[in-house]
Amino acid sequence: MNELMSSGIELMLIGMGMVFSFLAMLVVAIKTMSSLVLRFFPELPNGQHPGTHHGDDLGTIAAISAAVHQYRIKHRNND
Q1: Can you give the pTM of this predicted structure?
Q2: Alpha carbon distance 16, 24 (integer Å)
Q3: Distance CA 21, CA 36 (A)
Q4: CA angle 20, 22, 26 (to 5 degrees)
Q5: Residue 63 and residue 69: Cα distance in Å, rounded?
């Protein structure tokens, strides 16, 4: 019984060591990727995001609104 218990403890310690090693490598990899991304793609100052448009085309907005309105009217009777 003593030999079985020592084998179980040995297996547990090896498993815990492997998990700890993997998690430590994962943390190092994530921190490295984060620093590389910030080095090559720095954060933009507030208000300068590339996808933000402050002067949207009013014609486009009107066309989308009209299309949604027509779709809702057309499909209201199908429910």
Answers
A1: 0.52
A2: 12
A3: 23
A4: 115
A5: 10
Give residue for tokens 């019984």.
1
Query: What would the pLDDT profile of 6-45 be if each residue is shown by its tens digit?
Result: 999 999 999 999 999 999 999 999 999 999 999 998 887 7
φ, ψ for residue 13, nearest 5 deg: -65, -40
The region, left, alpha or beta by phi > 0 then psi within -120 to 50, assigned to residue 15 is: alpha
Burial of 14 (0-12, 13-18, 19+ CB in 10 A): exposed
Token representation of residue 44? 């933009």
Scanning the structure block, which residue is given the tokens 């002067």? 55
